[in-house]
Amino acid sequence: MVFPLITNPPEKLSEKSIRIMSLGLIVGSSLCIGLAPALMPAGYSPQSHYISESAAQALHGAWLARLGFLLFGFGALLTCHLHYRDWSAWVIWMIRIFGVCLIATAAFSHKPWLENVQADPFEDFLHSLTATTMGFAFCFALVGFWFVKRPLAHRVFDAVVGVLSLLLPVAGGLFPAWAGAGQRVMFAAAYVWFAWEILSRKRQKQAA
Fold it and tell me: Is 155 helix (H, G, I), strand (E, B) or coil?
């Protein structure tokens, strides 16, 4: 199912259908990630615990955060297809890598944050690898936009989201008590960025 989405735009679907589907996936993902802490056992704090820790191995209720990663990944891939005529090849492939890594992040889970719970260290390594690759791919995509013609408002927001994506993980390492909150701000910025790109495509088409 993933491979056709990566290689070929869904020609049989109208642009309006792709726009609705991609926006629905992004919104659905944000709801899953936002509600996931409600399924966590006592001791989980959205302020200090990472999103991935709400999708950890051997954790009851982890399915909701994993679904959030999955929906976001497919939403990113569909957004690529929506813009495959006006985004550069570099940006498209970086966002594709971002989307595929999100899907992989849903498949490979973080080690449990609860004590005395058995973990698979190799799966945790794969999760870290895909999550790190995902972050770099998104930043590289934002950098790629600076080499193409783009409205000033989009350029400014690209820069803001890019800076947040670089600084918040570092801040989370320096201030672990706020690491989860920082990551959630970063995800929120990414959700808004994708939603804006999806909706701006409609405005571009109307202007044309």
Answer: helix
How do residues 21-66 score in pLDDT, each as one tens digit?
999 999 999 999 999 999 999 899 999 999 999 999 989 899 999 9
Tell me which amino acid residue 44 is.
Answer: Y
More confident call, 113 vs 191: 191
**List of long-range contacts for 1-8, beta carbons under 8 Å, 24+ apart:** 2/77, 2/100, 2/103, 5/74, 5/77, 5/78, 5/81, 6/77, 6/96, 6/100
Q: How confident is the model at residue 1 (pLDDT cuts 50, 70, 90)?
A: low
Question: How far is the C-alpha of 175 from the C-alpha of 188, rounded, in Å?
Answer: 19
- Fold (topology level) of 13-203: Rhopdopsin 7-helix transmembrane proteins (1.20.1070)
- Tell me the domain boundaries of the chain: 13-203
